[in-house]
Amino acid sequence: MFAPQGPTVRELAVQALSSVERGYDLLAPKFDHTPFRTPEAVLTPVSRVLRRLGPFGSGLDLCCGTGAGMGVLRQVCRERVTGIDLSAGMLAEGRAGEPVPAGAPRTEWVRADARALPFGPVFDLAVSFGAFGHFLPRERPGLFAQVHSVLRPGGRFVFPIGAPPRPGSRGYWTLLAFDVAMRVRNALWRPSFVMYYRTFRLADVRAELMRTGFDVRLYALPELGRRADGSPRCRLVVATRTA
């Protein structure tokens, strides 16, 4: 699962016993050598859909980490792209990463909590990749309201969401075991480390986005495969802020 340059078991253990912010600060120098970084296999089909929907003026990468999603925004935004993350370490790695190509939109890296975004309605596009497990279900309405508040009317909030694994499958038991392990860890240890990916269900998320004031549409990402019943393994949620 990890490249040779990735974290050791001891380093992962220390990170897992830290807070979310501190854990990612510690992981940041080796984050891009772990399976936690969003792979190109996901970024490429998302870029394909966004190019069809765009172009956009300014874009926001919510919980940007070291900046995998920033490359997507640079492809479809003309003016500026902004990455926000709570981890100063992850932002530092993002700033020090690959140089921004000539002619690319202005790039900004901002340390902020996604639950209290320090912007007005200045973005035409917001994206997020793989971060929603760090928010408890009760926090999602506030999180979605924050994203809604920083989008211009007609702005879009976009993120991929995978289909849940079939009950009884290897993926199902793996996610269940991980979820149980995290809940036991948080019951016995402080500070807590929130990472519960089984709680981010499409039906719930879609209903919460609509209550927030988004019009929600789904786009299949066939490059990521299909399930036995023919349905896509991954969809792109495109939530548009209504005027």
From TrEMBL:
GO molecular function: methyltransferase activity
Keyword set, alphabetical order: Methyltransferase, Transferase
Keyword Methyltransferase: yes
Pfam families hit by this protein: Methyltransf_25
GO process annotations (BP): methylation
Database matches in InterPro entries: Methyltransf_25 (IPR041698), SAM-dependent_MTases_sf (IPR029063)
Domain Methyltransferase: 60-155
Full protein name: Class I SAM-dependent methyltransferase
